[in-house]
Amino acid sequence: MFDKVKGNWIKDSRYILCSCDERYFKFYFKKFSTTFQTHWDLPIHLHLIDPSEQSLKWLEQEQMSYTWCDTSEYNWQKEIKKFAEVTNRQNDDPVRVKQWLYESYTQCQRFVLLGFNMRSNQSVIVVDVDAYAQKTPTRKDKKSLYKQTAFSTHNSRLMATFCHFHANDLVAVRNVAQYILDRIKISHLEIGLDQKALAYAFDKIPITTLDKEWIRHYDVKDDTDIALHSRCLVYHEKGLRGKDFSKTWTSW
Known about the structure:
This protein has 252 residues and is α/β, with parallel strands linked by helices. It has helices at residues 22-40, 53-61, 76-87, 94-117, 139-146, 170-186, 193-201, 223-228, and strands spanning 6-7, 14-21, 44-49, 65-69, 123-127, 131-133, 150-154, 157-165, 208-210, 215-217, 234-236. Strand 3 (44-49), helix 2 and strand 4 (65-69) form a beta-alpha-beta unit. It is globular, with a radius of gyration of 18 Å.
């Protein structure tokens, strides 16, 4: 499933990478691509999971750099059975287990692809598709970001929402991908596996920590967040899966 990818990888030396399934693509990608192209002036490479023919045609018309994969023929029943055996949870609803495994897959796929496709002359910004750019970074901002690998953090965890991978850390980028594949082989997919892989691969590597002026998240829902919303470079809407969309000030 991770290796059956169609399309051509982007050749630019600096670009933005995002990955999503068809549902997230239809809901978020227009805003994502419009705002990041406006404020960052960088090419975007999209990896689309289980796309419709309509979506693929649109990407072709927009001359967007993209790859895609189809998970419909993957043996999900085998993964569900393995999950039940490893966790000793045979009574869980298989439909819900598949949904959980699928969501984990969508989180991990971009980092596996990056690990196998990033070249030694490339500098890559990875962003969740349910985020959007709202300010143009200054030259100082860009210099700080591009000087080395950079992550936003939360409770000492490296966050996968918005991050930059420097070419000097290509071995670590490869290790992220390998960690994910190894964990799935001996265990199972799980939510947050991408963050565990990042923590493992970049444990001893110097990084730039991105503060709240770089990125803020919709799960902070108090008045402070509303006041600071307009100041950050990137805002993360936190997705469709079980999230609260009552605050219209983050709407498209």
